[in-house]
Specification:
By secondary structure, this protein is an alpha+beta fold. Helix content is about 20%, strand content about 30%. It is built from two helices and twelve strands, in the order H-E-E-E-E-E-E-H-E-E-E-E-E-E. The strands form three sheets. Strands 1-10-5-2-3 form a five-stranded mixed β-sheet, with no helix packed on it.
């Protein structure tokens, strides 16, 4: 890892510890889904079928921002997202509520602490490992992708009725640095 990548990763991890101590978001602390292996609930929608997608939105993940930084959807709309990591670090695209992201950030911190996320690389073999309490960090939920630099994947999502929904990167420090975007309903 070159020096600049190391400094960015170190800064992100450092910022996340401060943000976790202060509370990452002001609403719904601990009331959301964990982000790994559970149900999604009507609050954000459900996995969609590619054949039902009304449009495709390309989302580029750069180091600590998304392009575009917000999207508009209609209640009940199915959208196909093509997510590309254009940054130099591992990034996530995760659709959820602020409370869901807050809960998920704690699990993502465990991925860093266990060496699964290492700056710009993922140790996918370790994602199968038990992280305690029978939890693994497979990161295989349909509302989320976790990508190394240069990788691209799709998420097809059917949005629910209007709600407080964002897309975010929950890698430690990234959300706190501004790597989230609003889902606006028209």
């Amino acid at each position: 890892m070159n020096a600049s990548k190391f400094l960015v990763a170190a800064a992100a991890i450092s910022m996340s510890a401060t943000a976790f101590a202060a509370g990452a978001h002001g609403e719904g602390h601990g009331s959301g889904r964990s982000g790994h292996g559970g149900g999604h609930g009507a609050a954000i929608g459900e996995p969609g079928k590619a054949s039902e997608a009304t449009r495709t939105i390309t989302v580029e993940m750069h180091d600590n921002y998304y392009e575009p930084d917000s999207i508009e959807v209609k209640p009940g709309e199915t959208v196909r997202f093509v997510v590309e990591n254009k940054g130099s670090l591992v990034h996530e695209f995760n659709i959820g509520t602020p409370a869901m992201h807050e809960a998920h950030q704690k699990e993502m911190m465990m991925m860093v602490e266990h060496g699964i996320i290492q700056g710009g690389t993922l140790n996918r073999d370790m994602m199968e490992m038990d992280m305690g309490n029978g939890k693994a960090m497979k990161h295989n939920d349909p509302n989320s992708v976790l990508l190394e630099p240069g990788q691209s994947r799709e998420v097809v999502w059917k949005f629910s009725d209007k709600g407080d929904i964002e897309f975010a990167c929950n890698v430690p420090g990234h959300y706190q640095a501004g790597m989230y975007g609003e889902v606006d309903f028209d």
